[in-house]
């Protein structure tokens, strides 16, 4: 057994994610047998002394049948309605299934917007930790009933990776409708299974497919999730869940790529969309990107979009390239009057409440396409 596989076997706290296709019938209704089989595996992990955080897709898919829908609806409002119907059905089924082992579950619904607010982020972290301390199995899902296009995680692969940071998990298991990552469409005879991914070079030339019929994720999101997690990740199908947790050589094993950065910065980089843009002069770009300084009004030359204080916004170089993202301290309408001014001048002319950064360095993440860097650490 490799050292990384052994690390998964010995992992004390594991995040397990199951996609919609692993939990529902082709008609979109909950598959009780599939859920019971997966719960059997998770309960065995608990009996072995592990802490399990279960990230479950399936709320929208579970609501399709009761609403008379044959496929995932394209519009957000109907998706939210399906999630409202399906989430209760899904959690009720988990409650019943885990009860066979004397285990209780706790539902945790998250939105990316919740996680970007410092107080909300800490509340979610405390809730998950307390559930685990009380012996409860947290069932985590995106809060599809209220999430909008602008504040969605986009898929539960990414959510699972981010939750692994939130609870400081030791490993992540992503359960999909395919047993591994392949070099192309698994149905093609020339596609081969990739047993391990140690770095970006192992992904060169690989065709990553799109989303499934009832879910939102594809191989792209799973590869990204593995990169985000910062711990060993196994991608396989639900039937191989027990083998994956046992460290057996199945599925695709992703080696951790880097030291874990701040959880909040990961949420900011990977679970948000900029609600506007701030354009900087070259000096401000250097201060923010290279010297990791806060963004001050003096360095801002332009503002785009309609956002409010606390929203995530993209920070751009003079040529328009996005170099960072941060939580802004002002409404979009306030910033034009502040641009090019020093904080001292603003405090003297407009009042002491204006002696603050446009974005504080603890709420800034540098976006360089491959890594997540920043000042904050939680």
Automatic annotation (TrEMBL):
InterPro entries on file: AceGlu_kinase-like_sf (IPR036393), Asp/Glu/Uridylate_kinase (IPR001048), G5K_ProB (IPR041739), Glu/AcGlu_kinase (IPR001057), Glu_5kinase (IPR011529), Glu_5kinase/COase_Synthase (IPR005715), Glutamate_5-kinase_CS (IPR019797), PUA (IPR002478)
Species per Swiss-Prot/TrEMBL record: Thermomonospora umbrina
EC number per UniProt: 2.7.2.11
Domain PUA intervals: 276-355
Record has Nucleotide-binding as a keyword: yes
Residues that, per the record, bind substrate: 57, 144, 156
GO biological process, one term: L-proline biosynthetic process
Residues the record lists as binding ATP: 17, 176-177, 216-222
Keywords: Amino-acid biosynthesis, ATP-binding, Cytoplasm, Kinase, Nucleotide-binding, Proline biosynthesis, Transferase
Subcellular location: Cytoplasm
Keyword field contains Transferase: yes
PROSITE patterns: GLUTAMATE_5_KINASE, PUA
NCBIfam families: proB
Molecular function, one GO term: ATP binding
Function: Catalyzes the transfer of a phosphate group to glutamate to form L-glutamate 5-phosphate.
Family (UniProt): Belongs to the glutamate 5-kinase family.
Protein name (database record): Glutamate 5-kinase
Recorded catalytic activity of this chain's protein: L-glutamate + ATP = L-glutamyl 5-phosphate + ADP
PANTHER family per record: GLUTAMATE 5-KINASE, ISOPENTENYL PHOSPHATE KINASE
Gene Ontology CC annotations of this record: cytosol
Enzymatic class: transferase
Pfam hit, one: AA_kinase
Major subcellular location class: cytoplasm
Pathway the protein acts in: Amino-acid biosynthesis; L-proline biosynthesis; L-glutamate 5-semialdehyde from L-glutamate: step 1/2
